[in-house]
Amino acid sequence: MAKTYEEALRWASSVLSPKGVDPDGARYVLEMRAGFTPSQLRLHDRDAVPAAALAQFEQDVARLANSEPAQYIVGVAPFYGDLFAVTPAVLIPRFETEELVAWAAGEQAAARTGLDLGTGSGAIGLTLAKLLPNVAMTLSDVSPAALAVAQANAARLKRRVQLTASDLFAALPGRFDFIITNLPYISRAETPVMDQSTLTYEPALALFAEDDGLALFKRFAAGVAAHLTPGGAAYLEFGYRQQPALAQLFAAALPQAQVTFRRDMADHPRMVKLQF
Ligand SMILES: C[S@@+](CC[C@H](N)C(=O)[O-])C[C@H]1O[C@@H](n2cnc3c(N)ncnc32)[C@H](O)[C@@H]1O
User: Fold this and answer.
1) Whole-angstrom distance, CA of residue 151 vs CA of residue 55
2) Which of 146, 180, 248, 266 could form a disulfide with 141 if both were Cys (CB 3.0 to 4.6 A apart)?
3) CB 261 within 8 A of CB 272
4) Ligand 1 pocket by C-beta < 6 Å: which residues?
5) What is the ipTM metric for this complex?
6) pLDDT digits (tens, 9 = 90+) for 214-240
């Protein structure tokens, strides 16, 4: 039966809300499939959804009802004003990570080289390639499937960057003026309290780290100084309960670095800079 956009969204909400699924996902898929901005969708509230679009929407809502992330369903996620292609090989970029990018962008205008380690979709490195056009950015990841998505995004957004497959620093010779990274930091012990959608659909390789979520930070701390130019800096995102453990880790492993923690907009400690 024909439905207006408003009716289609109300129907989606009646399907999703009883299952505990946020109906905002339905709004997002409808906007992305139609090529509407949020305000354009509101302007079309009373218009009939074309039959083919409605059939597509019904399929999308069935997937949302199974907790599949809206961004994987439509294949794109917003980050820092751009739309990034995403597949289940990459983490869906989070808004919190935009704050880490803004921190580095605000301080690294004079840098010549930068590294985004564990780039996933390329959200961090490709955004910095836009904000800091004079910086030669290298984007690396241990996952070839993730790097393929980052490469597709570099082409889609027309950003010139170097892409390298590497287990942390292993295949990255040379030094960078700054390094930025959002490494996996979730402890397996947190699985019972994690969002079902994240657990089922996002790649475990992008989420979890051994040793209470600290394993990759420890390896990073062991390698970072050898990959920064003198006076270089590293910017890292971490879990909101990890600041005390990281303060200890960096003080012991990198006594020469000045360590500055920062809180995110929700007032959680989530970012750190290591200034050498
Ligand atoms: C939390 S995700 C971050 C993705 C993206 N940078 C973002 O912020 O949206 C972590 C990324 O690190 C990559 N990764 C995991 N272990 C790695 C390792 N040992 N070396 C390099 N990258 C790794 C994963 O494949 C994943 O893409």
Assistant:
1) 32
2) 146
3) yes
4) 90-91, 93, 97, 118-121, 123-124, 141-143, 146, 167-168, 182-184, 205-206
5) 0.99
6) 999 999 999 999 999 999 999 999 999
Residues in the chain predicted with pLDDT less than 70, given as ranges, are: none
Distance separating alpha carbons of residues 119 and 228, to the nearest angstrom: 18
- Closest by CA to 170, choosing from 216, 204, 124, is 216
Q: How far is CA 235 from CA 28, 32, 64, 112, 261, in A?
A: 31, 32, 34, 16, 10
119: CA distance to ligand 1 center in Å?
A: 6
Q: What is the pLDDT of residue 231?
A: 97
In tens, the pLDDT along 124-146 reads 999 999 999 999 999 999 999 99
pLDDT value of position 1: 79
3-class secondary structure, 245: helix
Question: How far is ligand 1, taken at its centre, from the CA of residue 51, in Å?
Answer: 40
**Ligand 1 atom closest to Cα of 116?**
6
Between CA 259 and CA 205 the distance in angstroms is 27
Report which of 245, 227, 250 is spatially closest to residue 180, judged by C-alpha positions: 227
Average pLDDT in the chain: 97
CA 106 to centroid of ligand 1, rounded, Å? 23
Name the residue with the closest Cα to ligand 1, atom 17.
142
